């Protein structure tokens, strides 16, 4: 790891000011950044530690939204009574991320900003139609994830919180890599009260998280596990790697979607 200077601001304004000064990277939970710095796949002359900024952390309800601060830990989301009651699928997803060390250090904002193609949180953000709030603007989930490790965030822009709509039904099913615990495939399903529209978001299968619109349409007409499982998806554009082929992932997605639907009806 190369030498760097560490800043520990106490306010969001101070952090934003520091990020505008040369070769600087924000540090949230460090579960990705520290590893890439150690292997010299990333470099920064300065790091800005966001962990000491109170306004970036916490969980609250605001009307029909659950609002979660960017530096809130995965374990905090998983254990939150508020999240478990309002969006059980989100709490369950947070509890499946990595291992206890990762869950107790990793943050919501860090995971979403990184947009790892196999990360779990992006599936909840897109699957619930959440809004990503930054120090500059609000970004709809459908406009946020652009590609492999690519998001709509601009230089110096920080996620401050994410606003998740309360769902009447939500569940996450994950087929995990046994070594990394990343999703070989993961599917988040949600439906809101009074709204027949179903959202189905898939992680681990493409360059970034995406919506399985064919499954959404089928479930919108008939919300049953068998319906989700009966959808045939093309492997075109899906990932093939040493863990699984695109064809295998195309098969997994409807299976996991059916399991998620069954969860919501249990």
Automatic annotation (TrEMBL):
Keywords: FAD, Flavoprotein, Oxidoreductase. GO terms for molecular function: FAD binding; oxidoreductase activity. Signal peptide: none annotated. Residues 1-169 form the FAD-binding PCMH-type domain. It holds the Pfam family FAD_binding_5. This is Xanthine dehydrogenase family protein subunit M. It comes from Noviherbaspirillum galbum.
